Amino acid sequence: MMRRVLLGFMGIHILHHASRGEVTGTFMMEELERHGYRVSPGTIYPLLHKMEEMGLLKSRTEVRNGRRMRLYRATPKGEELLREAKERVKELCSEVLGD
Q1: What is the pLDDT at residue 37?
Q2: What confidence tens digit (pLDDT) does each residue in 27-85 have?
Q3: Which terminus of the chain has fewer Cβ atoms in its 10 Å neighbourhood, N or C?
Q4: What is the rounded CA–CA span in Å between residue 86 and residue 63?
Q5: Is there a contact between 41 and 25 (Cβ–Cβ < 8 Å)?
Q6: Whole-model pTM above 0.85?
Q7: What pLDDT does residue 38 have?
Q8: From CA 82, how far away is CA 80, in angstroms rounded?
Q9: If you ran DSSP here, which 8-state letter would residue 23 be given?
């Protein structure tokens, strides 16, 4: 159960950053680690691909320093889901934390 909750939080975090600009899987692994999540490539890349399949992210490939990189950005559908998720998280935190 906790894994599902954490994947949901990671998805919200990905949408947050991808709505502000393009992100890579490596960037998201480092960003999530900064917040205490230990994320492997075997977790982040399937999550990014699933979010793209769901229409929440759109990707493009770019070559940087001779390496192909996939860059992800939130779609309008992803941005709408992020807005809704923020409201629900705010309400839940208010109730659970009593703020």
Answers
A1: 87
A2: 999 999 999 888 999 999 999 999 999 999 999 999 988 999 999 999 999 999 999 99
A3: N
A4: 34
A5: yes
A6: yes
A7: 87
A8: 5
A9: B
Q: Please check the confidence at residue 99 and state whether its pLDDT lies above 90.
A: no
Using alpha carbons only, give the angle 86, 95, 87 rounded to the nearest 5 degrees: 15
Q: What are the Cα distances from residue 44, in Å, to 16, 28, 29? A: 15, 8, 7
Token digits for 62?
Answer: 């770019």
Q: pLDDT-based confidence at 5, cuts 50/70/90? A: confident
DSSP alpha helices (H): ranges in the chain?
Answer: 2-18, 25-34, 41-53, 76-97
Whose tokens are 């990189």? That residue is 69
CA distance 42 to 35: 19
Give just the sign of the alpha carbon dihedral 90, 49, 56, 22.
positive
